[in-house]
Design brief:
The structure is a single chain. This protein is an all-alpha fold and 358 residues long. The chain has a single domain, classed as Up-down Bundle (A middle domain of Talin 1). It contains twelve helices and two strands; from the N terminus they run ααααβαααααααβα. Helix 1 packs across helix 2 and helix 9 runs antiparallel to helix 10.
Length: 358
């Protein structure tokens, strides 16, 4: 087996991030320190995804895309929980805003770009309709139970679940996501495998040592990203307040930050005519975001006695419903063109516009 050397930049960014965290523990994290943290966190995110890809290549598909999705979800969940703990009252709706933003970014932004770029290059692209349909079915159930039903389950509480309802919603989310992972990796693994036979499938996988090193660096990167994001949060909030943007913009920024590297990975796969891998990455990330983030923030909310708003307003419910219907239509045939990509991107633009100009 050919030994694979870890690129220097994938080690340098996590090390630099740890250095910034050390400096921030002694000085006020403003000015140059905040600017450096903003640059370093982006590089560390890409390093984390690189190491996740190394581990993913070693374990093979569809486990590989699952590793990437879980890595992104761990980052996102840790960011949300850290902000919730630091400012509990002001951030009651942060989890909802971030999860909703992640779903819209994935299902309209990332999927739309993949369909548009892949369709422009190959005219039509094919994928496993059974796998995509299974993912959309679980996504529809998860989003409805966690983002829509809270606004109707206990009207006297507003967009909140009562404590027993919140516990039940967290357990149901875990069951649904766990069932999907079982189907994806064991029961019907062939539904999620790319049909194309290209050189990427047969590329020499990394050695066990390289995979082990990448796994360790992945953990370091994730911890560093959480720490840097916590440093940057006050600066981001100050900037949003100065621009007079809605507080929901914070959730969009967090979701966009953690999904950016996965977006590039999905686009690379689409450009190689491997739309199945792109959909595995995108939809798997959306499912992991809801299926794992909601139970985590629910547990934090219950343990600390914090308010947790999950229910969307009517406008966002309409956008979510439109996204789910559109996704089922788009992914219901096994073939896509640039038209579906344009439609998804238009819906994404609508989401961003109404988030900034409510």
């Amino acid at each position: 087996m050919v030994a694979v050397q870890t690129p220097f930049w994938t080690r340098a960014w996590p090390a630099t991030a740890c250095g910034i965290l050390l400096i921030a523990s002694f000085v006020d994290a403003q000015g140059l320190v905040a600017a450096a943290a903003g640059i370093v966190v982006l590089g560390t995110v890409f390093a984390a995804v690189h190491h996740a890809e190394v581990v993913a290549h070693r374990v093979g598909e569809p486990y590989g895309t699952l590793v990437l999705a879980l890595a992104v979800t761990v980052i996102e969940t840790a960011l949300i929980v850290s902000v919730m703990i630091s400012t509990p009252e002001e951030k009651a709706g942060l989890a909802r805003d971030t999860v909703f933003a992640a779903v819209m970014i994935v299902c309209n932004g990332i999927v739309g770009l993949c369909l548009l770029m892949g369709g422009a290059r190959y005219r039509e692209q094919e994928f496993q309709v059974h796998g995509a349909s299974a993912a959309m079915a679980v996504l529809a159930a998860l989003t409805s139970l966690t983002l829509i039903l809270p606004s109707f389950a206990a009207r006297e509480l507003g967009p909140l679940y009562s404590r027993p309802q919140l516990v039940f919603a967290g357990l149901v989310s875990l069951v649904l996501y766990g069932s999907f992972v079982f189907v994806q990796t064991i029961r019907h693994r062939d539904y999620f495998l790319p049909e194309s036979d290209d050189e990427d499938v047969h590329a020499t996988p990394p050695t066990d040592r390289a995979a082990f090193v990448s796994a360790g660096l992945l953990v370091v990167s994730l911890v560093a990203i959480v720490g840097l994001a916590k440093i940057l949060t006050p600066t981001v909030e100050t900037g949003i307040a100065s621009l007079r943007l809605p507080e929901a913009t914070v959730g969009i920024i967090i979701a966009a930050l953690v999904l950016l590297p996965e977006c590039f990975a999905a686009l690379r796969a689409a450009q190689r005519n491997r739309l199945q891998t792109s959909l595995n990455l995108a939809l798997g990330s959306a499912l992991a975001t809801i299926g794992l983030t909601i139970p985590a923030v629910a547990a934090v909310s219950i343990m600390l006695g914090q308010r947790l708003e999950l229910g969307l307003d009517v406008k966002d419910q309409v956008l979510l419903a439109l996204t789910l219907v559109l996704g089922m239509v788009t992914l219901g045939t096994g073939r896509t063109t640039v038209l579906q990509g344009v439609v998804h991107l238009v819906i994404f633009a609508v989401f961003v516009f109404f988030a900034v100009v409510p």
